[in-house]
Amino acid sequence: MSLQTLDKQDAPSLMSKVISACLHTREITLLLMILGIVVVMSFVTPYFLSASNFRAVAVGMTPTAIIVIGMAILLASGGFDLSVGSVMALSSTVVALLLLAGVPIPVAVVLGLVLGAVAGLANGILITVIGINPLVATLGTMSIARGIALVLTEGFSVSSLPPAFGYIGKASLFGIPLLVILTLSLIVLFDLAVRHTRFFRQIYFIGANEKAAMLSGIAVNRVRIIAYILTGTLAALAGVLLASRLMSGTPTAGNALELQVLAAAVIGGASLRGGEGTILGAFLGVVFVALINNAMTMLAVSIYWQMIVIGAVLVCAVALDMLVRRQSA
Amino acid sequence: MSKKTPLIELQTVSKSFGSNKVINHVDFELLPGEIHALVGENGAGKSTCLGMMYGLHQPDAGSISLSGKKTVIDNPAHAQNLGIGCVFQELSLAGGLSVAENIFAGHAPATFGIVDWKKLRRRAETLLGEFNLSIDVTAPVDKLPISTRQVVEIAKALSLNSRVILLDEPTSALTPDEVDALFTILRDLTRRGIGIIYVSHHMSEIFSIADRVTVLRDGRKISTHKTSETSENEVVTEMIGGHVPASVKHASDAIGDVFLEAEALSFPGVFEDISLTLRSGEIVGLAGLMGSRRSVIAKALAGLFTARDGVLKIKGAPVDLRSLSGAMKAGIGYVPEERKTDGLFLDHSVRDNLVAASLKKHTTHGIFSTASARQATQNAIERFSVKAASQDTNIRFLSGGNQQKIMLAKWLETEPDILIIDEPTKGVDVGAKFQIHDELRKKAADGMAVLVVSSDFPELATLTDRIIVVREGRLVGEIGAEMATDDSILNLAAGVEAAPQNTLHEVERSAIQ
Ligand SMILES: Nc1ncnc2c1ncn2[C@@H]1O[C@H](COP(=O)(O)OP(=O)(O)OP(=O)(O)O)[C@@H](O)[C@H]1O
Ligand SMILES: [Mg+2]
Fold first, then answer.
1. CA-closest residue to ligand 1 atom 16
2. What is the pTM of this model?
3. DSSP for residue B222
């Protein structure tokens, strides 16, 4: 419902202003909650604060964190992509197979990324030019990509890769894994790009009101297709890095990853209605979910209970958001 | 004038949607520095003509020339590159984004693709400053009242530095004062050689701003006149192909019991101390300028916006309306201001839209009667002369004014005791406007209490029994039918300091008398 502007509100106290700013900025809310988890957990178990645990959590969430960039952009444009987990698995197996066949590492990596871009292009064309609903289109490509990965490998992991390929996955810089540094750089880069470049600002117009975007002279289909290509490429990158870290291509990797990524992005402030969300928010969503999982593992909560908790967190985050919005309407 | 090359020219263009021939061999030209009005009844084809010039529709036959050169305009992005800007009949802004970003949608000032936010803000402020509008340009547009959004929309078209500007009913939510500000800007633009096509149903606006006027009827061009060489009467006669309907000033005689009573409704920061009564049989106007909160007050009375303090009574009993369905049970009908987003199911038929709020009426023993709905729709189509291919057509494909008529008819169908209408005749042509006024008067005579919010002050002056004026969320006075003119409303709405300065009001007043 649209309401008149409330520009002459009684001056609220500084405190309530701060609280409302926190509630309205998802990034801040999430940061506070992440801090909360860290503080509580460090009292509960000393091992939580150890460098090796942080390392493990950080490295473990790199695939999700890389893919969430694309997903957040798609969500802001009013779309989404369910095929990311499958594309990640496909690129990891294809790169591994190419390496086994003796293709030089750089060439294999580039081909893996191109594969992801092609998958994204296919999604983009199906959704924009042909007009298939994103749910249906990416559900289809999800199944196809996974199927190809399984057919190529007959369901087995591809290992015995050349040792040099494992470098990126294992190397560290000042004690920080290269994977983590790379992921963080991508997050910062894309967060800034989405906030400040003309190209990515168009995404929000398309998500908020596609017709209006078209009437404003924005090339809606082109922008949409590029967003899908970007997402496919990022999923493929996550696959290549995963293969490098595990030193094998796994056709079953990233099962149900698309749902985790979607959940994290939504917890981070994106919305399936489109037009909102930031990369930073989505990334914090990934961190939040990863920490909750980690905390529960440390507390020896069963994996089945972890699913229940994550589901509850997702619903609560969205419900809280709705309440805050209604308050401010 | 005739020696200049037209900026844009339609050369015997035709356009059909399916089997429906909407534009039929139309010729039209816009000269540099000219304001050329395009008029016609609802569904005559005005928006379709603009759509062809903006690359939204491709003509089936004929061609378009730009500065004498035949050009195919592929899409809106292409049109913008060719120097054509457009303000649409329906608002086309992206809700959550800031005012400044919306104004420069897709072409924000940038270096190497990186948006220069400072420049963006400054330019947006400058553009809005020309409308004497100082709002926070970093605020999201969906927090703004519709009238302000309309100004943002106009600023958006001006931001492109176009040579040709297409304006499709740009003033439908603006009060006379705001229209004056727009006209000053438009005159300024024409001095720079820019050409403007101006679509409006307000004859007074056309005769005060346009150099020439072209009349369309049923997709055919009827005539082009210099406004100095024709009269409102002639233009309206050509538009409707018959004689001009006349509106008489209204005075209800059978005013009855109090149906709705508001006692000191307040919502701090939005409106304060709103007390008013609505009686059976009367039509009351609610007037105010941009930022007066007229729409939000109407929503509060209809139960769509809950005030913090105060009491709302219906037929003497206090009520706590928390939703529209609650309000409907209490006997209230509410017609929203924005038909596209708030009022219609765009992908459903005319009939579905008409009966959406009164399904019960067409249902016996739990079974919905399509025949009965069909009959009701047929009646409404005739009563309001709605132009639609059939009642099974998706309402999306009706022209703006015809959609408006269906939305109003939908609420009349619910037979409420109290009807609250925000902009009843937005985008409706002269003839249909009188039909709507007539219909509202009949309903009032049958005992309905009607509250009309309108930015069209002449409309309020003729239609209503008394007019309540609001300014910045407070009631500032009431004008009885005998005293109501658009000037007296404007003076009260703006505060004493703003005296009318434009001939527009003179013309508009003479149209009433
Ligand atoms: N996309 C479409 N598909 C089918 N029919 C359409 C479409 N757009 C417009 N029409 C039809 O074309 C005719 C002309 O519509 P148009 O919107 O040009 O009228 P208009 O003169 O702008 O009317 P108004 O004053 O109500 O805005 C109408 O009968 C309308 O139903
Ligand atoms: Mg129109």
1. B45
2. 0.80
3. E
